[in-house]
Amino acid sequence: MEAESPSGVAGKAAPGFEPKIVAFCCNWCSYAGADLTGVSRMQYSPNIRIIRVMCSGRIEPNFVLRALELGADGVLVAGCHIGDCHYISGNKEAEKQIARTARLLEILGVDKRRLRLEWISASEGQKFANTVNAFTKEVRELGPAGYGRK
Amino acid sequence: MTQDSAAEPAGGMGQAPGNAAASPVPGGKVGAVVVVGGGVAGIQASLDIADSGFKVYMVEKTPSIGGVMAQLDKTFPTNDCAMCILAPKLVETGRHPDIEIIAGAEVEKVEGEAGNFRVTVRKRVASIDPRKCTACGRCSEVCPIETTSSFDEGLCERKAVYLPFPQAIPLSYTVDRKSCVGCGRCAAVCPANAVLFGPEETEVRTLEAGSIVLAPGFEKFDPTGLKEFGYGTYPNVITSIELERMLNASGPTKGHVLRPSDGRVPRKAAFIQCVGSRVGKQKERYCSAVCCMLSVKEALIAQEHTPGLRTTIFFMDLRAFGKDFDEYYKRAESEYGVRFVMWRPSHLSEDPATGNLRMVYETRDGKLAREDFDLVILAAGIRPPAEARRLAQVMGIELNSYGFCRTGLFGPTETTRKGVYVAGAFAVPQDVPDSVAQSSAAAAKATAGISESRGTLKVKLDRPAERDIGGEQPRIGVFVCRCGINIAGTVDVSAVVEAIRNEPDVAYAEENVYTCAQDSLRKIQDKIKEHRLNRVIVASCTPRTHAPLFQKTIQGAGLNAYLFDMANLREQCSWVHMREKDAATEKAKVLVRMAVAKARLLEPLHRQRIGINRSALVIGGGISGMTAALEMAAQGFPVTLVERETRLGGLGNRIHHTLEGEDLQGHLKNLEERLLADKRITVLTGAEIRSIDGFVGNFKTVVEIRGAGCRVPGAGTEGPGTPHPAPGTLTIEHGVIIVATGGREYVPDGYLYGKDPRVMTQLQFEEQYAAGTLPPYKTVVMVQCVGSRSPQRTYCSRVCCTETVKNALLVKTEHPDAQVFILYRDMRTYGFREERFREARDLGVNFIRYEDDEPPVLDEKGGKLVLTVRDPVLDRKVRIHPDLVTLAVATLPAAGTPELAQLLKVPLNRNGFFLEAHSKLRPLDFSTEGIFFCGLAHSPKFLEECIYQAQGAVARACTLLAQEALETEAAVSVVDEARCRACGRCEEGCDFKAPLVKVWEDGRLHARINPALCKGCGKCANRCCSGAITVKHFTGRQIEKMVEAALSDFCAGPANGGVRQDGG
Known about the structure:
Oligomer: heterodimer
Number of domains of chain B: 7
Largest interface: A-B, 71 and 82 residues
Helix content of chain B: 10-25%
Shape of chain A: globular
CATH topology of chain A: Rossmann fold
Order of helices and strands of chain A: EHEHEHEH
Low-confidence stretches of chain B: 1-24, 713-723, 1050-1064
Shape of chain B: globular
């Protein structure tokens, strides 16, 4: 279950490169899970900026594309586990929309590993930290996305 | 129902804002209820009572509410994360203006009578003042004393100064007086001066209340005394609740299953069922009802968490009797490979070298097997709460022979004292959804008796006039919290304030030691006035717990609650980047800048008030429907009951005996008489629902009346059968709907049913027994699970095992010489019904277990019935010649259920029963607002369960009817009607039926979202193909601006900051 970093070739990116990551977290599970990470004083890399939304089903493909366009190197979308959605099936919508977005990224020639969807519950503080660390590492290895407008 | 915890304008954490209304009418009943116990049952009862316009005093003996559910990792049968679903309820309870939590307190004395109780409560004075404590945790860090954590079942240590659990309400550290040595270090370091150090003191309060609800929960059985399983001696023998803590990601082993002896990952684990249940002394022989499912769930989750782990469950009868439980059990076996062995181990022995545990058991083919397990989990049962006796004495109520609260079949929440009600596991061992439904029922009963005092003690929220900020440029005030050293120890707060001060539109910025302290809150209000601020940002901790407090503050200064946002600098910055101070400071600047970016676009939002028709429609006139209608009338609301048949009573008409020996037919007659005598109730029999339009508060239902047999308002005194003036259609306007359509018997197609008169269903047996028309018999065979737990109907019908035992006892009492054989798969006589199962065995009823793949076969040869079944004990086929065969057939949803579901626009589950909004915490609600359900329409269940569900559905409905107008959510979605292309994707995707596409009064076809139904999740906006939907408070533009700010001037990384390659 716990996301481990894939064994990508380290150091492919420019030395010292620190990726910018935008995360969208649903209020009820993932944002609460991120809070628990803090309460439990688990540490993760500071590259991430969390934007709270009520439901992961709110995340439009456009938000992801726009984040990349504005200079993000990775986008994390996190919601309640399937079956746990506070709004019944919002996370299923997220699953569909994020899959659609990933296909769009492929068409646009963007490595779709820059977009990650995770289910993180309010009690999974450790999973939140692991996810952020693994994703940061992966995006760091991928190098700068380079779509940002200067 | 909270939509956005950050957008609730209600009161702060347990502090009652505004002023209490005038005291009750002298001599009248007190519009307040004392709820004893703050577990999930007490919480549900309190919320329902408070939401219906009454004051609640919640007396909890521990420092935090939450109970045992807070300790659970997942919940069956959906594997929902327990804390994810409980925490919002905890927060809602904590900040409800009409609920006062009195933690660390016990009831000492009850005087007076129903309607006017005087309840004396003794409260331990908290050593750490919850009003001052900011939960920073400094006290715990410096505390030198370590002791075992009771929340983690002694599996790990905690300090003597501790937070009960991270989501505790009240959110305050507390001192474990038993372990504390009084060194005073905590007091010395507390930056908020919250630690009041001295000898432990108590204070006494006297509460005036009209009713009392008892929800003290249960005690977990302690298997220490059971030598045979070596608990407490063999380290690798643990209890199920200990395993539950291990499975929890925030528990002592962070979600890993580890052997206590050596910390090794186990390969083979065994669960032993019925530890402390169904055996032993008479008063312990009941079934604890929840452990089978608990073990199935734990086996499944443990295997998920531990690659390579194989689990085995040793059970007597696998009691998966609840809604969707049997399917869950089957899945555990077939998909997860959990092994189920029907055997009750007599003892365990430990190999001291390995710490493994050896078990000897009999296999299916009768051979003895020896097997070693490296972890054994005891499914320890449910005991009455430790304080049951004392509580019974104080309350003046009786306990039953098991030490639980005594209740009656027809009054499942009523204790032996008028005005005192019971909910949850103190009534009977039961799981969360049953507890929740029963707690709602207790809420209905507790408020019915004092309904005349509804609203008299409700807190009136003082909201000062709101300043109109229309046309103003944003003037944002930013308050950055140091949180003692929690934020300031890692983040350079002054640097953040300096950076943000220069942002465009920021009119004011400052730092506070504690922004949530009373003096800081006053300062925010002063600064709003002084600088004419029209947006406020607090950069401190998580909005999930603290936004309401600050929103209330800015409302006090005349700003709309939605002109507020937070930046989470504690949980999501300083606490998670403690070793990277520079990066944390840079991140904090960006987080505040993101909040500023959103704040520029914030607009005032208002809840709309929509009218509500304060009356109810009950569909179905069986026991559930009749009970619901009567309870609704007792609450003071008019109600129309619609029954399709010409006769009321439903399936109840066919039940002549109850296991408890109560007179059901008499009860039915009594219900009907009261129903017809009540002027607030209109009964329509022989009537069918034709259409249902409208939405919560404003439904319009067309009923077709087929002919004579209808009763109209006020016709009750004219006796039954008063004909309706004319058959035809009738339109009813009402605010809520309670569906109580009941169920029916499955008609079997095997076992010679319908071909041989000696073969009948259990209900037919009961009818013929009562009428004395049974053929003479010496040998009776009763076959279980006919039509249930089959590929076509995957569910367990829950009641049949007990009904069969009931009828077997009838036979044995009447004809002690008669031979009775019960052919069963698992005897599911859960709870106190177990005693009657035992009695049947003692009376010589023969129980033969058959396997799913080898059902009994019934033939007729030469006028004689021949039944063949394989007896697993004898390991051979036995042949019985019965004179009578009864079939325990499945309970089906009522005919016409799918059609009604379409009219109501609500879903059904795979077996055709109505589907609730949430299987654990909203068992009686549909996800569509304003529609509730109960009884067999929900799933098969016993009479008393139907009764409390009906009462519970009334309590749920009263949370709406108690309001003079419904307030919609403010942060909802709206459609730009000019841009809408009427594709219907919003309507199709919404689980709450909020969007509707039709030709509106403007003559155009487009979608419109009903704010009364919208929850503001934003799914519709995502699905909209023309960008016509705006999600208020989370608009696309607001999110885009936050993204932009998040990526601007980014400076991450430990040392040299972000090095950007120019990617073009």
